[in-house]
Design a protein that fits this description.
Length: 170
């Protein structure tokens, strides 16, 4: 049985973080949703993740699918800049619902900060899961390394170094 801590966070995942976990260890999404906080994904974001075929499959992975507000759809369509329509929807939904946006994408991180939305990197979920006792040290380091190998654009050596140091300090 996985340890359970009081869920203090409502988290919304962008596509790149969702794909990182799906490629490496999909079952971690369930563990994170049970130990760290409620995991949400905007329906339009889920549509761009071919590794999940349906809302039912998303639910089995511990994800709650959100249909965005019409105003947020129009806001995302009107926004021009470095974020995609889906990323903009993720930011606007996070702002409206009070979610923490979990992303490794620099443009989305910047956009969320502009909107006053709290942001976490995807690897932070692994740190919190390790801290909660939901995963062992060896496994958490291996999973992070696998995520980095799959996503070297967003997970740099510096990010990995900081991650490893933080794990060592726990």
């Amino acid at each position: 049985m996985k340890p359970k801590i009081k869920s203090l966070r409502l988290l919304i995942l962008d596509a790149c973080v969702l794909i990182d976990f799906l490629k490496v260890e999909p079952s971690l999404l369930v563990d994170i949703s049970q130990c760290i906080g409620s995991l949400h994904v905007v329906s339009f974001v889920l549509d761009e993740v071919p590794l999940i075929a349906s809302d039912e499959e998303a639910a089995r992975l511990g994800l709650k699918v959100i249909n965005p507000e019409v105003d947020d759809i129009y806001g995302a369509l009107d926004k021009s800049g470095r974020t995609s329509f889906q990323d903009e929807l993720c930011c606007l939904t996070a702002k409206r619902q009070g979610f923490v946006c979990v992303t490794n994408d620099k443009a989305l991180r910047r956009r969320c900060k502009e909107e006053g939305v709290s942001v976490l990197r995807g690897l932070r979920l692994l740190i919190e899961l390790y801290r909660a006792g939901g995963i062992g040290k060896r496994k958490v380091l291996q999973i992070a390394e696998n995520i980095k190998e799959n996503n070297p654009y967003h997970i740099t050596r510096e990010i990995m170094k900081d991650f490893e140091e933080e794990i060592e300090d726990i």
